[in-house]
Amino acid sequence: MTRRPVRIDDLLLFQIPTGVRLSPDGTTAYWSLRAIDRELGKTVCHLQCGAHGEPPRALTSGAVVDVNARPSPDGSQIAFVRRTVGGDGPQPAQLCVVPAAGGEVRVLVAERGDFGPPTWSPDGTRLVVSLRRADPIPEGEKGVLAIRVTRLHYKEEGTGYLPQDRFHLVSVDLAAPALVPLTSGDWDDSHPAFSPDGSWIAFCSNRRPDRDLDFEAQDLYVLPAAGGEPRCLTSARAMVLPPAWAPDSSWLAAAAFIGPPGHALSRQNVRLYRFPVDGSGPVCLTPDLDRCAMNLTIDDLWGLEHWMHPPVVIDGGRAVLTHISDRATTWLAAIALDGAGLPVRIERVADGVVDFDACAGRIALITTSPSEPARIEMCDRTGARRDIAWPMGPYCAEVELPRAVEIEVDSSEGARVHGFLYLPPGEGPFPLLVAIHGGPVVQFGRGFFHELCAWTSQGWAVLAANPRGSQGYGAEFAAAIYRDWGTRPMADIMAAVDHVCERHPIDRDRLGVLGGSYGGYLTTWIIGHSNRFRAACAQRTVSSMEALIWSDFGAVLGLENGALPWEDPELYARMSPLSYADAIETPLLVTQGLADQRTPPDQGERLFIALRLRGKPCEMVLFPGAGHDLSRGGAARQRIERLRVIRDWFARHFAGD
Hints:
The chain is mainly β. Among the domains are: 164 residues, Neuraminidase; 254 residues, Rossmann fold, CATH 3.40.50.1820. Helices cover 14% and strands 36% of the residues. The strands form eleven sheets. Strands 36-37-40-38-41-42-43-44 form an eight-stranded mixed sheet, sandwiched between helices. Strands 10, 11, 12, 15 and 16 form a five-stranded antiparallel sheet that branches. Strands 21, 22, 23, 24 and 25 form a five-stranded antiparallel sheet that branches. Strand 11 and strand 12 form a beta hairpin.
C-alpha cells in the first residue's frame, strides 16, 4: 500500500483520547475522545469506554465537550463535566452522570462558570466538585459592564480576565441535586478527593497571607466530610499538585515542590511525596531521582491537561504510580514502599505514557510514540500490555511518517545536547527547519508531532533538540539558563545544527528557525546574534522581558530572575531579544494570537514595529480571538491557517536564490 504524505489539514481527522479512568473492577476503561466537528468547525469531546477484546462504545454524543469522566464506586455510573458547543457566548457548565452500560445523560446541576473534576463519596450518594461562578450579567445586557480587579492574579491564559468569584468546593447529592457549599473565602480551593473511608475530603488551596504575591503556591488540606474546618498538611512553602489517597486513608500521595517561590521546574525538581493525615510532615518518595515527577513532554495532540496528573496508590498502599519526565520521554514509574512507607526502589512500568489510572491490579494507559500515537492500553506492574483501542490507527496506516534519527552532541561548557532529526523521503540535500520548543521547562520527546511531520512532507528536514533550560535532563541542566535565557540555549541549538549539517544530507544554504512562546524568544535571540538562517518565524514570542511582567504569570517573573524590572533594568534589557533588533537581518515572520494572556500581543507587535522602523524584513500575522495554545487547542480553521502561513513563509524563502 502506497502511503500518502502528512497534510496540514489532517488535524481535522484526528481522534485524540484523553482523561482515561478505570472501572472499580479494573476491566473497563473510560475516556474522552476529542475530535473536530467539521460541520460546526469546533472541537467536541465524547465519552467512550472499552475493554480488551471488545470494540469501544460511545456513551455520549452531540455538540458537547464531555471531560473528567469518573466511575462511581460501584461502577454503575460515570460522572463527568459537560459544556455544550455553539450558541452565543459561553454556555453553562454542567455536572452530569450517565449509566456505565449506556443510556440517557442526567444533568445534575448547571451553572454559569467552571467546574473542576468531580470526586465520588465512597457510598456513591454524592459528588464533590470545585466551582467558580461567572460574574453576573446585568439585566438587559449581553455581558458584564465592568471588571473589578483587587488582586495580582486577575487574568489567566485560556480563561481571560477572571471573575470575582473563586473556586470553592461544593457537594451535590444525587438523590436531590443542589449545590451545597463546603468551603468559602478569598482563595481558590481545587482538586477535591474523597478518602476511601469517607472521613475526609482532601483538596489544594493557597490560603497564605502573601498569596497575592505568590499565586503559584498550593498547600494540601483535608476537610472533615461531615463538616468542620479544613486542616493544612503542609507547613513549609509548597506547590502541591492534585493528590491521591492511600487505601487505608492514613496518607496521601502528591507531586510537589517544597521550597522558595520561583524555583519549581526552572531550578529544582518537582518530586513525589507522601503526606500523612496526622500532620507529621511530608516524606519524599523520589529523593535520589534527578527528574520531575510530572509529564513535561510536549507535542501538538494534547495540550497541558496532563501536566498536573495525580499519582495513583496501588498494591494496598505498597506502591505509588507517577509520571517521570526523562530524556525525551515520559515514563510511568511504580515507587515501591516498605512497611514504614519509605521508598525502596523505582520500577519502570511503561514508556511514552500520556495518561494513566489503576484499579484492581490493572493499569490503564494512554501512550504515544512517533508512529503509534494515542493508544489506549491495559497493563500490569510488569508492563505486559493489552490493546483497548487505537482511534488514530486508521490514520497512521494511511500516511508516510518521517524517519527519526536520535542525536546527541557536545556543546559549550561540557554540556551534552539530546534531540531528534526528522528526515523526509528521498536522498537530499534537504532544507532544514530548526524547531525550538516553548516552556522552557519542557522537552521534545519520542512522540507523534503533527506539525513536524507536516514540514517533512514539504521535503524539509526538521531538527528538534532539547537545549539547556529543558526538563528531562536534571535540575542543573534546567537551571543553566537562570538570568540568561539566550546564551547557552543558543550555543546548544547551533551545536546541534552543526552536527546534523556535517552528518546528514542538509542544504546548509537553506536553514530556517522557528519556535513558539519561549521558542519564539530563542528564535528571536538567535537571529539577533547570527545571520546563518535564511528565514525565521517567532510565534507568540517574548521580545521584551520587562513587558512580560504584564502577562498572566508576570508576578512570578521577579522570583524567576532574582529581581523585578525596576530593580535591575540592565538585566531585563540584556535578556530582551528586542535589545538586539539592530543586528537582525534574517527575514522574520511574527505570529500572534490576539487573546494571548501568557505572551500578550504587544510582545509580537513591539518586535514587528521595531524591525519595520529599522527597515528590516519582517511580516506579522495576527489571529483574532486566539490564545497562547493556538497550535494545540485553538479553533480548527485558525490552526490550519497558522500552519499554511508558516509553510508559505519558509517555502518562499527556501525557494529564493
